[in-house]
Amino acid sequence: MNNLFLMLLFDQLPLCMVMIFLIVTLLVGLYYSDKTTTLRAYAVGDKQFSTLTLVATTLATSWGGGQLVRDVEQVYDRGLYWMIFSCLSFADVWILIPLSLRMGGFIQHFSMPESMGSVYGKYPRFITALAGIASSIAIIASQINVMSLAISKCIETEQPIYIGCTTVAAALILIFYSTFGGIRAVTFTDVLQFVTFSAVIPLFTWFMFRQTGKSINDIAIFIHNQPKFQFSYVFHFDRNLFIMLSMVLGIMAAIDPTTMQRIYMASSPRQANKVFLYSGLFSFLMIGCIIVASLFVFVSMPTLSTAEVWPYIMNHIPSVFKGCICISLLAMTMSTADSKLNTCSVMVSHDIVESIKQCNIPLFQSSSLRFMVQPLQWLARLIENTSPIWLARLTSIVVGLCAMLLAFCCKDLLALLMLAIALYVPIVTAPFVLALFGFRGSSQTALIGMITGIVAILAWNRWIKPITGMDGSFFCMLANGLAMLAAHYLLPQPAGTGWVSPDQT
């Protein structure tokens, strides 16, 4: 009887490890939830986080679970192409190292849309918030799909309902502590989750090396003889090269509001600069471990299809280490998703609400259209009478549920990533970067650029992408910026617009 019990416990050990991890994460989130009483605390905390804490939460936010799953599969399948792509995928962190020093005029804001509004007005602020929320929902959905993948490796069952229920439970846990704890709960759970996956990934690399049964020299010779890992395979002009470059450029330009939120949490631009410098260095170490681990899997079994890579890994590691991998995937997904939820909450309760309050809608006084405007009037009164922090919490719940629905509809991680980029980069990145470099344009100028970006990405996806296969987010971002500059110099501008010199920092 005792032996049977031990066998059952050993078989379900990964699931037990996952449940313990989820409980610990929930407890940490709840512990820091009781200190959130104002919107400022909910959005940026007390702005007294240590640099090490900010580095941990920045890395935990940047490293989604899809990164590990996707990179192991794609390096195995595409070779040197994807190795270069993986190394460049964190270039946005390096881009923020110099840009963070230009945040002196915006460091006291709560969010990226607020900074946009301080330069371009209420309408660009509103559009920035909407684009950020839509992009975040796509990213959260991809993380929920990775949760499902991780949990499916723990539960040895043919009944998908058990996997679905466990995934929903994990998603509800992160929604719960993110909703009621604010940025403090998110930050300190991120620290726990960062420590977890940063310890497991190097162990994963080492274990995959042991599985090869070969020396480093033998592995290097084997990899060198494979065509897809040779430079001649990559550096020649063909359709795949241009497709990969377009994806890299789009990801590099994705200066998203969640990453920028870490700057607003810093006490000064100099601290933010240090945070992104250390984050960039550590990111290269982590991506190196993942690439090497994928190479070891390829050496062990070079004939697998992409879909067979992770099943092969999970079937050839001990039960305890299988649990560690699943916990690592959950840590990466939850740390990204909870940060996105918090950012969306701030953008609704702080930015969208403020933009609505600043808008005077004449239709509200029109008696002939009362039946149409009454719902808008009711919504406006509800917003005005609702506490911002409770509105933020309600937003977190709604956004989390929307992301869960999207996750059930779309399982393709790469498609969700490119959707998130397309919803955001062509619209927001150009005006924000111009503002950081001292451009002070009118609201009309910013709207012209944003509309140009929206029209450009729709046209690209309709006519150009089906032919070339290239992602157009980066190029549409350039169209946005050029349209703004053209509008500024060709159209009459109000006083106070133009370029300003950077601050002393």
From TrEMBL:
Residue ranges crossing the lipid bilayer per the database entry: 12-32, 80-103, 123-141, 161-179, 191-209, 237-255, 275-299, 320-337, 389-409, 416-437, 443-460, 472-491
Key words of the record: Cell membrane, Ion transport, Membrane, Sodium, Sodium transport, Symport, Transmembrane, Transmembrane helix, Transport
Example of a GO MF term: symporter activity
Pfam families: SSF
Subcellular locations according to the entry: Cell membrane
Gene3D superfamilies xref list: Sodium/glucose cotransporter
Origin superkingdom: Bacteria
Any single biological process term in GO: sodium ion transport
GO cellular component terms, semicolon-separated: plasma membrane
InterPro entries, alphabetized: Na/Glc_symporter_sf, Na/solute_symporter, Sodium:Solute_Symporter
Primary subcellular site in the record, as a coarse category: membrane
Record-given protein name: Sodium:solute symporter family protein
Natural source organism: Candidatus Cardinium hertigii
